[in-house]
Amino acid sequence: MKISGNTVLITGGGTGIGFCIAEELVKSGNEVIICGRREEKLKEAKEKLPKIHTRVCDVSDPKDRKHLFDWVRSRYKDINMLVNNAGVQRMIDMKKGVAELAKHENEVDINLTSTIQLSAYFIPTFMQREEAAIINVSSGLAFIPLAMMPIYCATKAAVHSFSISLRHQLKNTSVKVFEVIPPTVDTELDKGTRAQRSMTYRGIPPSEVAVATMKALAEDEYECAVGQAKNLMEASRTDFAEQFGRMNL
Ligand SMILES: NC(=O)c1ccc[n+]([C@@H]2O[C@H](COP(=O)([O-])OP(=O)(O)OC[C@H]3O[C@@H](n4cnc5c(N)ncnc54)[C@H](OP(=O)(O)O)[C@@H]3O)[C@@H](O)[C@H]2O)c1
């Protein structure tokens, strides 16, 4: 995949991994559009990277998704890359019943449905391009779940499976499908619950995931597992029960 001269939409690009991917893409000479729900985070991102374009959007809302697609397609006619990065991660105790689910944002809508729906919006347009890409951000937890985050892990396993099928369906087209599989990364993803869980390891910097993503794009490495995520992927095939036990004491 060429890594310059693309026009790229990154969901959740105002912070963390998405922002670092935006930085790398701008550095390499791409036009970058980011979206997210918090306008102030998008403004902060634009102050750091004046060349980017921003749009407030809740990707879990069907109307917002449609408006985002229409807005991007009308303004950025050469759009040829979509990074499905927006995500949330919540600790959910299923023993508390359905009320517990209502207390939290809908991880299925944000992490999974938006990935599927935005891909479906952009694929017909992307198929008209000489080269195009969909990049789905999953997680090492797609391969071995942390049971305290049952829905998050299920959505990421689904993003992994969806990416495989999408790649297969699009194999005779100009659209390449990448999956970026981060390990624990030092971002705001879980809204501070790492500290509550006495987790002292904050993870690798998000810039490392962005650099690995650029390398994967350049080398057409369709599954880009970063750092410890490689071990989880491998262990899911060779050593699942032992690794699951270690992670879920
Ligand atoms: N950090 C890790 O350890 C880790 C590990 C593996 C995979 N990942 C994955 O990496 C991706 C990026 O996460 P991150 O670690 O960089 O955390 P982050 O900094 O919290 O980034 C998540 C981004 O998604 C946006 N977002 C969340 N819900 C949204 C919605 N409904 N509509 C639009 N944007 C939304 C957030 O902005 P707003 O809140 O303003 O909308 C935020 O900018 C996620 O898919 C995550 O699952 C992270």
Written account of the structure:
The structure is a single chain. By secondary structure, the chain is of the alpha/beta class. The protein has one domain (7-247): 3-Layer(aba) Sandwich (Rossmann fold). The chain is built from ten helices and seven strands. It has a seven-stranded parallel β-sheet with strand order 3-2-1-4-5-6-7, with helices on both faces. The longest helix has 20 residues, at 107-126. The mean pLDDT is 97. The protein binds NADP nicotinamide-adenine-dinucleotide phosphate. NADP nicotinamide-adenine-dinucleotide phosphate binds at residues 11-12, 14-18, 35-38, 41, 57-60, 85-89, 110, 137, 139, 182, 184-185, 187-189, 203, 206.
Number of domain modules: 1
Could you describe the largest sheet, including whether it forms a barrel?
7 strands, parallel
Multimeric organization: single chain
Q: What is Rg?
A: 17 Å
Shape: globular
Poorly predicted spans: none
Assign the CATH superfamily: NAD(P)-binding Rossmann-like Domain
The SS-based structural class is: alpha/beta
Could you say what the CATH topology is called?
A: Rossmann fold
Write a compact overview of the structure shown.
This protein is α/β, with parallel strands linked by helices. The chain contains ten helices and seven strands. The protein has one domain: Rossmann fold (3-Layer(aba) Sandwich).
How do the helices and strands line up, and which of them pair or pack?
Layout (H helix, E strand, L loop, with lengths): L6 E5 L4 H12 L3 E6 L2 H10 L4 E4 L5 H14 L5 E4 L13 H5 L4 H20 L5 E6 L12 H20 L5 E7 L11 H4 L9 H13 L4 E3 L2 H11 L1 H8 L2
Parallel strand pairs: 1-2, 1-4, 2-3, 4-5, 5-6, 6-7
Helix pairs in contact: 1-8, 3-5, 5-6
Bound molecules: NADP nicotinamide-adenine-dinucleotide phosphate.
NADP nicotinamide-adenine-dinucleotide phosphate (NAP) binds next to helix 1 and strand 2.
